[in-house]
Specification:
The protein has 75 residues and is an all-alpha fold. It contains 3 helices and no strands. It has helices at residues 2-13, 27-46, 48-70. Helix 1 runs antiparallel to helix 2 (27-46) and helix 2 crosses helix 3. The longest helix is centred in the last third of the chain and has 23 residues, at 48-70. The radius of gyration is 17 Å and the shape is flat. It starts with a helix and ends in a 5-residue tail after the last helix. The model has no long low-confidence stretch (mean pLDDT 87).
Length: 75
């Protein structure tokens, strides 16, 4: 869902020729984002404990990403 929303930001930021072609823009991406949001809400409502554990794992990974990326040698 988050990835799909970036198309709106890229299309607004870029001027001139649109290099991000999406069929049915903006309706189709908006419908996808809305459907994904509904699924996310129902996922949390149905199984809150597992959803929170999964969210904690993702947030922990996002927080640790810069640390591990910084230790990698540049080529």
């Amino acid at each position: 869902m988050i990835t799909a929303t970036t198309i709106f930001f890229y299309r607004r930021r870029e001027t001139g020729e649109k290099i991000y072609h999406v069929w049915g823009y903006p309706v189709v991406p908006a419908l996808f984002v809305a459907a994904a949001a509904v699924l996310l809400v129902y996922s949390y409502a149905e199984n809150l404990k597992s959803s929170l554990i999964g969210t904690a794992i993702i947030v922990t990974g996002a927080a640790l990403f810069p640390f591990f990326r910084g230790n990698r040698a540049t080529t």
